[in-house]
Structures are given as C-alpha cells and as structure tokens.
C-alpha cells in the first residue's frame, strides 16, 4: 500500500486568523490536503509562551475554537485533515523535553525570529524559558506526526531549520535514519504587510483584516489604511511599489485589468485614495464573504467543531505515541 506524505501546519491560538495567514500558510494548507495526509495544529501551549497571553487563559481557550472555525471556513476538510489542540497530546511535551537536551542555550537564543519577536513585542529580558523553547516545542509538534512538509509564513523558516538541526543531532547520537528532516513551504506572499504599513500583519499589533470581519469592519479598516505617506492630494503622482493598498489589490483583487488601470492613474496623479480603497474594500469583501458564510455554519454547530477536535486529538495521539516510543527506544529509555 502506498502511503501519502505528511503535512504538519498550524497556528498559535492567540486570537482569530487574518488574511496574512491566508496568503502565507492557509492557502497552501488547503490546496495540499488531497495530496498529503494533513495535520493542523492549534498551538495552544505555544500561546502561553507570550507574556501577553500567559495570564489570559480565556483568550487562548476561546481562540482554539475560533482558529478551528477559521481553518474549516477556508476549506480544511475534517474528512481529509486532522485538526487538534497541542495541549491534548502530552506526547508532544515529552518529545519537546527530550529535544531540548540536544540544543545549546546559545543556539536557542541565536534564532532570528526569536530575536525579532523579542524586539517587536518589546519583551526586553522579560521572557520565559518557554518562550526561548518555542522553536523546540515546535520541532516536537512537527516530528511527533513524522511530517515531510510544513506550510508556513517566512517568519517560521528559522524554526524549520532548528527542527532539522535537532533531527541531525538526534540521528548522529542515537542512530542514522531515526528521525526525518522536513521541508518548509512558504505561501504566495511570504509576509503580508499590516494595514498600518508595518512589515507584518499580525494579531499582536492588531493591524489585521480578519477572515471573520464583517463587511462594515473591512470597510472601516480599508478606509484607515496606510498608503503613500508623501502623497497629499489626489493630483500628486503616487508610489505604487511597496504601497500596502496595491499590495492588497495584487493579493486579493482578481480583476487584474482594474488593478493595472488604478496603478497607472495613481502613478500619474489621476486617481484619489478614495477610489483605490473603495475598489479594494469591494475586492476584499468578495474574497471574505464565502469564508464568512461557511464560518457561520460552524458558529451555529459548535458541537461539530468540538467533535472534529476530539477526533483529531485521538488520531494524533496515536501517531505521536509511535514516534515517542521510537525515540525512547533509541535512547535506551525503559519501557516498563
Ligand atoms: P502572533 O503575532 O500572535 O505570533 P501571527 O499573526 O504571527 O500571530 P501565527 O499563529 O504565529 O500568527 O502564524 C500562523 C502562520 O501564519 C505561520 O505559518 C506564520 O508564518 C503565518 N503568518 C502569520 N502572519 C503572516 C503574514 N503577515 N504574512 C504571511 N504569513 C503569515
Ligand atoms: Mg507568529
């Protein structure tokens, strides 16, 4: 029997998912779920790595349901993919503890995304051991189900590299071929900018358009969106490149002719921000409307959402146990 290759992918449970998640990771996740056995993780223990959420268990707990509904709404099919909460698979913690023995303290601190998050979230030196351990716990997520491919946004690539270092170290110490290296797969937009012009749309900075936003919310956010700061009047020639409004048009407006026309007129000072934004809001709303509709079904059938999570957890625990047993056996740890 031919077995399919596997995907492990997922999100922190620190709110709801936004259009940056969509172009960065969700789109690939949905497209590949036929070709791969797909595991979607709700990284709820990872959420506690952040000072902002460690004291807010109600946000993390609610987010488990919200993020599950977001995944289902964009087309993750529970018949093809398993969706599960990290905290319900204790085997992952065991693997995480074991893998932490293979990573030096210095190496853990040298992770560029960890450094960036310390800066971005102004953590100073006020972060937990769990925060530094974030990529190592992520390695445990990935390796627990024996994944081959990990669809992620660009910011996660250093964590994939860390995972592969752990694999190589483990194999070198306990036997070649014990664990398998994985590949990251970045989406069509590596890192979508925020509506405030920040380099990354992120829940933490609240600069996001969410997949669950209402039409009015999208309209209000687009109206406030950052554009070309040097352009004061609609008759001033504007900058298209790097302008968030046009980045979003390119990402979400299927009408390429309309975009080209707007760009040309913008460059010449022949169109105002109001028209560019009006067309963007319509395009974004058309993109989100069917997602919102599908999400509504699950909002009204929460029992189904919970059942999907319970089933996902059961399946993943089975897989993770196999990996953990193999790892412990290789390390000559007792099984009595
Ligand atoms: P937080 O700021 O709380 O970490 P986040 O918005 O970065 O939240 P994650 O759960 O960390 O969300 O990310 C889930 C997945 O979506 C990851 O693969 C991540 O790389 C990707 N992703 C997140 N934001 C973006 C973005 N703006 N552009 C592209 N991909 C993104
Ligand atoms: Mg993140």
Question: Would you kindly provide a written description of the structure presented here, covering whatever features stand out?
Answer:
The protein has two domains: 217 residues, HUPs (Rossmann fold); 82 residues, Orthogonal Bundle (Tyrosyl-Transfer RNA Synthetase), CATH 1.10.240.10. The chain contains 15 helices and five strands. The longest helix is centred in the last third of the chain and has 29 residues. It starts with 5 loop residues before the first strand and ends in a 6-residue tail after the last helix. The structure holds adenosine-5'-triphosphate and magnesium ion (MG). Adenosine-5'-triphosphate binds next to strand 1 and helix 1. The site of adenosine-5'-triphosphate has 19 residues, from strand 1 and helix 1.
What attributes characterize this protein structure?
Rossmann fold, Tyrosyl-Transfer RNA Synthetase, globular, mainly alpha, 2 domains, 336 residues, binds adenosine-5'-triphosphate, two-stranded parallel ribbon, 3-stranded parallel beta sheet, binds magnesium ion
């Amino acid at each position: 029997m031919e077995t399919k290759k596997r995907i492990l992918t997922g999100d922190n449970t620190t709110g709801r998912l936004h259009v940056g998640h969509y172009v960065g990771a969700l789109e690939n996740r949905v497209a590949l779920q036929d070709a791969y056995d797909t595991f979607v993780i709700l990284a709820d223990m990872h959420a506690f790595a952040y000072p902002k959420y460690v004291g807010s268990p109600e946000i993390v707990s609610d987010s488990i349901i919200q993020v599950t509904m977001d995944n289902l709404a964009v087309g993750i099919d529970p018949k093809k993919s398993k969706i599960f909460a990290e905290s319900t698979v204790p085997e992952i913690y065991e693997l995480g503890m074991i893998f932490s023995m293979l990573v030096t303290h210095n190496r853990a601190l040298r992770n560029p995304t960890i450094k960036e998050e310390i800066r971005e979230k102004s953590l100073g030196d006020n972060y937990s051991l769990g925060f530094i351990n974030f990529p190592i716990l992520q390695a445990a997520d990935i390796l627990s189900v024996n994944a081959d491919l990990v669809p992620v946004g660009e910011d996660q690539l250093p964590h994939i590299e860390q995972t592969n270092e752990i694999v190589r170290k483990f194999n070198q110490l306990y036997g070649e071929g014990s664990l398998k290296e994985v590949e990251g797969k970045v989406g069509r937009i590596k890192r979508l900018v925020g509506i405030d012009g920040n380099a990354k749309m992120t829940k933490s900075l609240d600069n996001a358009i969410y997949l669950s936003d209402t039409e009015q919310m999208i309209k209000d956010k687009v109206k406030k969106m950052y554009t070309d700061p040097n352009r004061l009047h609609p008759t001033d020639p504007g900058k298209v490149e790097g302008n968030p409004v046009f980045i979003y048009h390119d990402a979400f407006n299927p009408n390429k002719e309309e975009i080209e026309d707007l760009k040309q007129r913008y460059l010449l000072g022949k169109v105002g921000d109001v028209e560019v934004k009006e067309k963007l809001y319509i395009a974004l709303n058309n993109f989100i409307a069917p997602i919102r509709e599908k999400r509504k079904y699950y909002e009204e059938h929460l029992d189904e959402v919970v059942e999907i999570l319970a089933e996902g957890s059961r399946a993943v625990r089975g897989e993770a146990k196999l990996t953990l047993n193999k790892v412990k056996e290789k390390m000559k740890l007792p099984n009595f």
